[in-house]
Amino acid sequence: MNSFYNVSSQHNAAAAVIQDVVQQLTSAPTEANFGFVYVTDAMTTDFPNLIKHCKEATGIKHWIGTIGSGVIAPNKELYDTPAVSIMLANFDENDFTMIPSINKSENLISHIAWPRTFVSNFGIIHGDPLNQKIQNMIEDLPQQIENGFIVGGLSSSHDIHYQVTDEVVHGGISGVLFSENVGVITNLSQGCRPVGKKHKITKAQENAVFTLDNKPALEMLMHDMGISTYKELEQNAHEVFIGLCIPDSDKSDYTIRNLVGIDPDHSLFAINDFLHEGNEVIFCNRNSETAVEDMQAMLDNLAKRLKQPPRGGIYISCLGRGREQFGNDSEEIKMIHRTLGDFPLTGFFANGEIHHNKLYGYTGVLTLFI
């Protein structure tokens, strides 16, 4: 089995989706021994039953996946109604180990049957956004294994945030670790365009920034964004975002946060995260144009790194991207195939995206098996 294998289905009823998927899986390559599975929120209550039928239809015991506000099939995005996207693969049993459901950050590695022979570890994980320790676990896991590089996403459901890691679970993180023998390349698109330079936070309290570089914070924001009046800022606030620069990053990396309020009387602004004096921020512009521009740059970077067509891929995108920024014709997914060619692809729209051991928002994370 040299390539991966896709199955997808969308119907008005979950039972019809499961029946369709099972029928398609009967034609799957018998060598497949691993499955990635993503379902829309409309399939939440049927998720355990789906996994049961997938195992019975294929004989595959190793599965990872979760629930999204939408799912990514090979050439389209599926939303609103019950839908499933599955990708099957064949990996050497010695080159992966499952990450069971872990719901606290202490001594993570003790829960994993981690082969110490792995020189490096590439992990794909899914997490429950309701777990208050989720960010700590995402950052702690790669520190407890050698040369850990983690990607993934948080479930997006109005009900239980189910995941599967061989068995159906919820409440923490779960997934898989691959050895260096499984070839992968990955990249992310922030969908933003940084404006101006980085600024150091010189006075902050909780989520409010009073001064940047010892100057009034709101004045600095308006100057960098080219905004002259408070009314203009209010009108364009939906395109103004704050990038929290990641310390000690080997690149110009940042996590995007929302601008949630301004106080002209004190020249301060507030975001949806806690801030610390000494940290750096950069202002960003985010709209449909910047999303397309940054997505294409990410894909071009991956294309240059590819020496052969991808065998398969997993794309985890923010629930605020997809049709919200690229339109209703699955343009975000079509961009991937226009640039990189046709290959099996699965994924979902997440409530938080994980790349290189960090939790992001508003990003798209593409992982290619090569």
TrEMBL record:
Lineage, top ranks:
unclassified sequences, metagenomes, ecological metagenomes
Q: Which InterPro entries match?
A: FIST_C, FIST_domain_N, UCP018953
Per the database record, which ranges form the FIST domain?
A: 31-216
Instruction: Give the record's membrane topology.
Output: Multi-pass membrane protein
State where the protein is found.
Cell membrane
Name assigned to this protein: Histidine kinase
Q: Which Pfam families match?
A: FIST, FIST_C
Query: Which keywords accompany this UniProt record?
Result: Cell membrane, Membrane, Transmembrane, Transmembrane helix
Gene Ontology CC terms, in alphabetical order: plasma membrane
Per the record, the major location class is: membrane
Q: Where is the FIST C-domain domain?
A: 217-357
